[in-house]
Structure prediction request, 216 residues.
Amino acid sequence: MIQLSGVHKWYDTRHGRHHVLNGVDLCVRPGEKVGILGRNGAGKSTLIRLLSGVEKPNVGSVERSMNISWPLALSGGFQGSLSGLDNLKFICRVYGADYRDKIGPVEDFAELGKFFREPIKNYSSGMRSRLAFAISLVIEFDCYLIDEILSVGDARFRDRCREEIFVKRKERAIILVSHNVATVKQNCKRVLNIQNGRLIEYEDKETALRSYMESC
Prediction:
């Protein structure tokens, strides 16, 4: 289970303190498919970073009893001077996994060809995202965090991503943050909206979707 209790997140700027999340509560249970809708700047990506542990709340708590992925396709943790292969080896060591049986699947899914053994600093942003997604598939998690990942790559690659996450791992929990109503409606059974720094939950998915569309 993932439990957020009274979470506040703000950032100090030159223009004063900017509050992003104001007293957020959220509980996600094993196997749940949760969609979180919000306009640009509403705090969706901040929420994902808090859930993954990349950032900590200023106030409140985030408790995790499930193994949670990094935000899918997030490539900010890569070491640019290392190759894609060396980054895979490093990440596997962090998670206590054997990298040797994962090289083939990552190479196949990321479709980087010879660049898999070249420094990541020479990759395009799309190549980095494909590698990050591929590595996330060979490290198994109880809950996957998805931040607009379905916009990565061409249509064929996006279809492969959907197949891997929403079909092959359908028993896993998923937290999908987006401003795309169709994506959330298709893949999530429970939907919440971020408005004015708070998470708003509704009686059913259709009410949540309608409320979000009316607010845009």
About this structure: The radius of gyration is 18 Å. The first strand starts at residue 2 and ends at 13. The mean pLDDT is 90.
